Every structure is written in C-alpha cells, then in structure tokens.
Amino acid sequence: MISFDRVTVTYPGASSPALENVTLTIEEGHFALVVGPTGSGKSTLLRCVNGLVPYFSGGRLNGTVTVDGRSTENYRPRDLADAVGFVGQDADASFVADTVEDELAYAMENLGVDPASMRRRVEDVLDSLNLHALRQRAITTLSGGQRQRVAIGAAFTAAPRALVLDEPTSSLDPVSAEEVLASLARLVHDQGTTILVAEHRLERIAQFADVVVDLGAGPGQVRVGPPAQIFATAQLAPPVVRLARLAGWSPVPLSVRDARRQAGGLRRRLGQSRHPAAGTARGEKVARLKGLSANYGPIPALSDVSLDLYEGEVVALMGRNGAGKSTLLYHLVGLRRPQHGSVEVLGRAPWSLSAPEAIRLVGLVPQDPGALLCAETVKGECSDGDRDSGLAPGTTRAVLESLVGGIEDSSHPKDLSEGQRLALALALVLAPEPPLLLLDEPTRGLDYGAKERLAARLRDLAARGHCVVVATHDVELVAEVADRVVVLADGEVITDGPARSVVCHSAGLASQVSRILAPAEWLTVEEVAAALTAGAQSEPVL
Amino acid sequence: MLHSRLQPLHPVAWWCWAGALAVAAGRTTNLLVLCLILVVVSWVVTTRRSASPWARSFGALLRLGAFVIVIRLVVQVLFGDRVPGDTWFTLPSIPLPHWAAGVAIGGPVTAQAVLGAICQGLQIAVILACFGAANSLASSFRLLRCVPAGLYEVAVAVTVAISFTPQVVLSMSRVRDARRLRGRPTAGLKGWRGLAVPVLDGALERSVALAASMDARGFGRRAISRRRRRLTAAATLGGLVGLGVGIFQVLYSSSASGVGVAVLGFGGVLVIGGMVAASHGSRSRYRPDRWLAAEWLVMLSGLAALAGILAVGGGDPSSLTQPLYPLSLPAVPFLALAGILFAAAPSGIAPVPVRVRAKLQEAMA
C-alpha cells in the first residue's frame, strides 16, 4: 500500500539529510507505528507519503515513494487526497473551515462525494469521535484535545485507503486517546484501512500495532518488524516492555492484559517491599487561588476553584480535554485577569505585574511552545533568554543541551522538530528558575529519554523549594514526578490528593505499571527496580 | 419566515452589501453622510455578527481607520499643500527648492485644510470599516466556497489574502501573550516594534500552512478538462479586471459614470458566467449556502444606499461634498440619507447567528 524505495530527504540549507536511505513497505490493512527519538525524521517520513514533502517543504527527495500504486513524483498532494488522509502534528494549522461540521465535510466536498452520503459520514464520525455536542461550534473556541479530534475526524470522513497521523494522541486525555486509537483499530479491522502513525506515547499505542518502523538505530538505518521483536531490543520502549525486561518475561507483552498474566511472580516478590517515602516536604505557600471563575463567552471554563500551591511540591493538573487546565494556568501567570475570585502569587496579583516583574515570579510553557520563539537562530533565542532574565550567558543553552542534545546553534527555531521546539521553550522558561513554574503539556514530541531528563530536572527544582505545576494528560510523567494530583472536570476541582493514591485508584489516570501490579501501589519501573535491588540485598534467598 | 433559518446569511450577500456601502462612501466627503454610513455599518455589525474570532476584525479595522485619520491630519498640517482660507495658526516654515513644488514644510494652517483632511481621512476610515464589516459578518471560508474550482491558483491566493486580516488579529493576541511570558514589554513603542515582525511572520506562516492543508485534502483537484479550465479562468479573470476598472471609474471619476457602470456590469456578467461554467466540476456541497429572500433583501438594501448616493450625485453633486468656502455645515441630501438608513435593514432581516441566539434565550429564561 505504502512503499519507500531508497528515500533520502534533504531540506534546503540543512547540512545532513533529515531522512536517509529509507526502504520499507507497508501492506494494505496494516497498522504501522513509527518510533524514534525526538528529531529522528518521523514527521518527515509521514509527510513524504502524500507528497507534502517535498511539494510544500522544499528540499530534495531522492528515491521513490509510492502510495496505492501512485508515485508522489507524478501526483501532487491534492491528487492523492482520495488515497491518503493526513493529520499533521499541528492540528491548528490544518483547519480550513470555521465550524466543526464544515471542517469534517471539507475533504469530501473536494472529492465530490454526493450530499446524502456526506451527511451520513459526517454523522458517523461525529459519533465515533464523540464530537456531536460540538458540531456547530467555531473551531477556535474548542480546547486543544477537542481540536485534535476534529482534525482526525476531518481525515476520517473522506474514507481514504490509507491514514497517516503524526502524534494523534499527544494532546488527548487518556480516555479520549483510547477512544481515538480504538476507532483507528476499528478502521483497520472493518474497512481494511492502512494506518501509519508516529507516536511517542508508546504505552498507549504499542498494543495496536502490526508493524513497527524504528528510526532510532541511527542515520540510514531503519528497522521494520513485528512489535514484540522490535521492542525487545529497541532503545525506546513503553513501561510495560521495560518492566518485562526487568522481570525477564518472554515473550515480551505489549498490553497490560498480557503483562498481568505473567506478573504473578513479580507481584509475590514485591509483596513485602515498601514504597519509597513520599517526596520532599512542602514549605511555604507560593500561590493561592480563591473562588476563581472564568468564562469563554457563554461557556464556563472555571467555576469557583480554590487551590493553594506550596514550595517544594510538583502538582499535576489533570482532567479531560477542555476541563479548564490551561485557563487555570493562564490566570496563575497573569495573562488573564480573574472575572470572579482572586489569584495571588507570593502575595501579588500576577495580572497587575509588568512583564519583566512577572517572569521573576512565575514562568509558563504554553501548550503551543512555538509561540514563545521569535529569534532567527537557536543560539540567538538562547542568548535572548539569558538577557531577558538576567542570567549568565550560556545558561539557557546548557539547560537545552541537558534536555535534548544535538540541536545545531544555527538552526532556525521554526525548522526544528516539534519535540526540539518544545525543549527549547522549556529551556527558556526553566533556566531563570522562578519560584512558580507552570508547564502546559510539556511532553508533546519528547521521547522517553528527554522525558526522563525533564522529570529529573523538575524533581530537582522541587527539592530546591520551587513549586512546579504540570498540566498534562501523560500519566507516566505524572507517575514519575508528581507529589500531588489535582483533577479538574468542567471547571471544578474534583480530586486533590497525593499522587500515589489518586493515580492508583483512578481507572483513567492509572500508569501502566500500577495497572499491571494492582492492587499494590507501584507507579513506575524505576520504583520496582529499586525495590527489587533492595529486596535482593536484604533477602538473598529470593 | 426570515428568522427561522439556522444557516448564516450567504457570504456573497454580506460582501455585496458592504461593497455597495464602501463605494457609496467613496463617492462623498459629506461629513453627515459618512458618519451615517459608519453608524449604520457599526449597528449592523454589533447586532448580527457571530461570536467567532474573525468577528473581531471590525474593531481592528475601526482602529486602523482612526489611525488613518490621524496620519492624514498630521501630514496635512506638517507637509500638506498650503490651502488658502481662514488661518488658525502658522507653523515655522522651511523654504524648499523650486523642484519640490507641491510639498511644503510648515506654513499657515487653515481651518479649510484641517477640515478637508479630516473629511478625506474619514472617507478612507469608513471604507475600511465597510471592509471590516464584511470580514466580521461573513466567514472568509464560506465566501471561498463560492470560488469555482477552475480557478485554483486564484482561489488559494484569495483565501490566503482574505484570511490574512483575521489571522493577523488572532496572531496579535498570541504574540502579545508570548512576549509577556518572555518578560518583554507589551505596550509602548518598544512593545509594538517587537510585535510587528512575529505577528506578520506568524500570520504569513499560518496562511501558507493553510494552503498546504487545503491541498492535502484535495482542494483544486482537476475536476474539469484543462481547456474548460483555461476558458473559465480567462472569463473570470477578465471579469475581475472589468470589475476592478469599473469600481475605480465609479469611485473616482468626477463626471457622470455611465462608462464605469457599464464596465462594472460587463465584468460582473463575465465573473458570474465563469463561475457558473466552472461549477460543473465534480465538487459537491455539504449544507450549501442558499440564496433566499433574506439574501436578496440584504444585497438590495446595500445597493439602495449606493443608488441614493448616485442619484444625488447626478442631480446635485455639490451636496455630497463638504463646503469649505465659506466654511459651513454640510448639506442634507435627503435621498442619500434615506438610502443609507435603508441599508440598516439587515440588522432586522439577516438571521441571528446561532450562538448569539443561544445567549438571548439564556437571558430570557
């Protein structure tokens, strides 16, 4: 269905190719998963499939890409629209229409689908992606996750023979992500659609894949094979696989269900071990929200939220797409002035502060990190950051290097991959180390390694008395860093409690390890590993 | 029932209405007439715009209009032609060499010069307001759907162009937020300077990404034969040129504009013909915009305003200009004013946008 024959892509002005000598074939009706570290060329690979590379990106493509028997050499993206549905990484940039329904119908209109079946298919997709309540809404009023669902739906409706999706679940809450993946799997099973997905959150998607394409082995080397085989040795692997490696399970399970079947022995071995003590003690109050309410037009975003944040804690803000997480962060950083209620950061109202004053108290990495970047080069961006916050030259650059290495000084921030751009924005905000740090979805496009390094840095900041608030859907990150979890639903605080108990006792928010080892309350592979070594030392018999 | 429809008004109807009012504004410098057009346009926009983000374009263009008036005034006072009349005050003047005739720096500033500049500035501001009104009332996407598939390149250019204004407005708030997060000033001269480049850059980039997305989803597929494509493209482009020339004639010719109207009409016929011919492609419509009684009425109400101005202009052209010698109150051309008042009718005729209606019902309950 999709085949690459010795494909090499070099972008204009780049010193090395973004994709080198890729040869692979994806059979019709397969669910193929592309994995690889941040900046390894996953997006480029996907964008080659329908010819967006090189027609819209510029640069050189050597070799041949064939889809449904048509080569992208002879067919432009618009002529492949009936064969390939494409969902890009930045859903916002892809919207053509204003309202949800029009957006869903757009591709079908261009393909000339007759109006009766168009109505039916739009209805089907509204149902399968749970969008029916939003059908008349203007897309700009939707939350990030809702927009992602609309973008996926817009590619679904035209019923293409192949669907290409770039990180389709990274801004979705765990439940919607499962729904989206389930509907993708349904397309594969019922309609024989071929699916090609790039994703970093392997824990969500690994079990659905028939084939894995691993770009992580180094430039010019692509490994293609069945998931169990690739993940057994791949550098990047979901927690279930890492737990399996630790416990020596074979064959390597990819789903929680398969893992639980083999986990009896491990559960017994861990039976007597203790969890590590809860994180650092909390200190003084850093911020307080009191009776905060906010609306977007007639739609309530927050209602009567009261919350205190303390030094030395990492708070995870969770909740469905559109629950009001970003709005809450915007109030804390002072970009929105509270309509009702009050916001205080270290005793001051953040909205009343001037910009230079504000960044000394509180920093925010917004959901769209690219918005923060405005310099011409990575180097310029970093030195601007140092100057804005009065840091020693090179500080920001060093933070960036510690998160994601190998980014060239001279690259334009807009040419970076999604994950690299996020790392740059993170570096800009983390480097000045303000007392209150807010991160909105800080793992989009980051591979497991970068995520671990980010988690370590956040833990370190908390240990030194900073308060970190992370709004995220990434339960594995929450399991790794959070002391406390606050769950929002429809703008209200539903739960506020210690991370371990919230994560382990909630169906939607549980991490993979906690699901496998339930009812024992283990959160991460590292915890289990530490407990096993400790156990081995004290009880050599086991 | 005009009000019971769920669908918004046809975008072409809004653009015709706003276009007619803009042309009307271009025919007059009468302060009374210009102010009335501005009031009518603002009234219709406030009562009938939706809650969508592009609806904010009107406010942005009003501010741009105010800026134009100020600039026009400053230029007139400092460098403008020395208009004779009742001197208010005299600025120190710098003598310029003879080859710089027509340009002066400083000199006497007369009431006539100031009032004339204000009238001209206001005229441009009102035309901008009409453009903003069309942008706020009609979604550019729905307008684009009316462009025939045969005109692919033109259509993409048009989309990028008309989505540019709302994109800039959206991008502005995004960039301001980002600058605040980076700890940089968001107000004052420094703030503006840092804003301009990323805003334009961002808006441009988004427009290009939009073009890529449209392409990936099949926009502009060859639905009709190449020969027919060329034919319709030629007809429509020719028509558009005709429309442009016609509008220019009608706006700026001081004589009776029979030629202008004829060219305008011919251009219109060509454009419509081109669109009809090209629409036989294989595209289909999801919930097509329908052209019903309300659309006719909105379009006619705008044309009524234009007709009123043209009629007055034909009979008594002086009543459409601001009298400067001697300075006096503007004339009251009843026919023109009546026509413009008629153009307020869409605030009753056009369907209420869905979300505004929901809010009204909430308030009533």
SSE blueprint and pairings:
The complex is a heterodimer of chains A (542) and B (365).
Chain A lengths: L1 E9 L8 E8 L4 E5 L6 H8 L2 H4 L4 E8 L2 E2 L12 E4 L12 H12 L3 H14 L15 H13 L5 E5 L7 H18 L2 E5 L3 H4 L5 E4 L8 E3 L1 H7 L5 H9 L8 H7 L1 H7 L14 E12 L2 E12 L3 E5 L6 H9 L6 E6 L9 H7 E4 L12 H11 L6 H9 L14 H13 L5 E5 L7 H16 L3 E5 L3 H7 L2 E6 L2 E7 H6 L7 H6 L7 H14 L4
Parallel strand pairs in A: 3-8, 3-9, 6-7, 7-8, 13-17, 13-18, 15-16, 16-17
Antiparallel strand pairs in A: 1-2, 1-4, 4-5, 9-10, 11-12, 11-14, 18-19
Chain B lengths: L10 H16 L4 H18 L8 H23 L7 E8 L10 E6 H27 L2 H5 L7 H11 L1 H18 L6 H29 L9 H27 L5 H21 L14 H23 L18 H9 L3 H4 L4 H11 L1
What features would you describe in this structure?
Chain A is an alpha/beta fold. Chain A has 2 domains: 236 residues, P-loop containing nucleotide triphosphate hydrolases (Rossmann fold), CATH 3.40.50.300; 206 residues, P-loop containing nucleotide triphosphate hydrolases (Rossmann fold). Chain A contains 21 helices and 19 strands. In chain A, the strands form 4 sheets. A 6-stranded mixed beta sheet of chain A has the order 6-7-8-3-9-10, with helices on both faces. A 6-stranded mixed beta sheet of chain A has the order 15-16-17-13-18-19, with helices on both faces. The model of chain A has no long low-confidence stretch (mean pLDDT 88). Chain B is mostly helical and 365 residues long. Chain B folds into 2 domains: 214 residues, no CATH class; 75 residues, no CATH class. Chain B is 66% helix and 4% strand. Chain B is globular and about 65 Å long. The longest helix of chain B has 29 residues. The chains are: A alpha/beta (542), B mainly alpha (365). At the A-B interface, helix 3, helix 4, helix 13 and helix 14 of A face helix 7, helix 8 and helix 14 of B.
